Amino acid sequence: MREIVVIGIGAGNPQHITLEGVAALERADVVVALDKGDVKDDLMGVRREILRAHNPDIAVIAVADPPRDRSPRDYAAEVHRWHDQRAQLLEATIVENTEPDGVAAFLVWGDPSLYDSTLRIIERFTTPVTVTVIPGITAVQALTAAHKILLNRVGEEIVITTGRNVAAGARHRNCVVMLDGGAAWLESVTPHTYIWWGAYVGTPSEVLIHGYVSEIGAELAELKKKLRAEHGWIMDIYLLRELDSSS
């Protein structure tokens, strides 16, 4: 039976991959990757460096990522349809490029368990496969390490959510925000809201900013636009925390 190894490769630093991940990559026959069409040289460079260090001769098969509606009326239904298409393409690619007992690897940014669709897509395969998941360092961990802060506070919860939810009004005392295509921090602010923000965390292009949203929020939104224009892409993450008298 074919094996699929889903390897968390961290937030951008090639040294984030664990020894377990290295061992899994060394025994893989092929790496399968979705090509999103807008080639991101920085990210591809990190992948190439990882492969060069741990399995330089492995074949890499790129699969064109099917398009999806970014502003659908029914978001969940559109994502479900998109995942079905992805599953069909990836399954066919794996079957065509591996032996019945071969090993195919997916390299996942951060950790496969956090805001990543790879495992959901594999669940849609009709071809029998075994799945091995290798955890990785998340962007959440990379962000807090870079800012030298604790993720949690004594006795309080920590929420991890998306920019879409924050923009829609979600409010929490301690909140990590991922997948923010805009500047959702501007929609969730009190005089006490503090932000620790990072872009390209773990890469040579890393940018870190922190301060009260009321003071730096608008300037940070402009910086994000500028960085996206310079690089052609951006991946950012941030922690919002209420620093009031009960902190």
Automatic annotation (TrEMBL):
<dbReference type="GO" id="GO:0009236">
    <property type="term" value="P:cobalamin biosynthetic process"/>
</dbReference>
<protein>
    <submittedName>
        <fullName>Precorrin-6A synthase (Deacetylating)</fullName>
        <ecNumber>2.1.1.152</ecNumber>
    </submittedName>
</protein>
<dbReference type="GO" id="GO:0032259">
    <property type="term" value="P:methylation"/>
</dbReference>
<keyword id="KW-0169">Cobalamin biosynthesis</keyword>
<feature type="domain" description="Tetrapyrrole methylase">
    <location>
        <begin position="4"/>
        <end position="216"/>
    </location>
</feature>
<dbReference type="GO" id="GO:0043819">
    <property type="term" value="F:precorrin-6A synthase (deacetylating) activity"/>
</dbReference>
<dbReference type="InterPro" id="IPR014776">
    <property type="entry name" value="4pyrrole_Mease_sub2"/>
</dbReference>
<keyword id="KW-0489">Methyltransferase</keyword>
<keyword id="KW-0949">S-adenosyl-L-methionine</keyword>
<dbReference type="InterPro" id="IPR035996">
    <property type="entry name" value="4pyrrol_Methylase_sf"/>
</dbReference>
<keyword id="KW-0808">Transferase</keyword>
<dbReference type="Pfam" id="PF00590">
    <property type="entry name" value="TP_methylase"/>
</dbReference>
<dbReference type="InterPro" id="IPR014777">
    <property type="entry name" value="4pyrrole_Mease_sub1"/>
</dbReference>
<dbReference type="InterPro" id="IPR012797">
    <property type="entry name" value="CobF"/>
</dbReference>
<dbReference type="InterPro" id="IPR000878">
    <property type="entry name" value="4pyrrol_Mease"/>
</dbReference>
<comment type="pathway">
    <text>Cofactor biosynthesis; adenosylcobalamin biosynthesis.</text>
</comment>
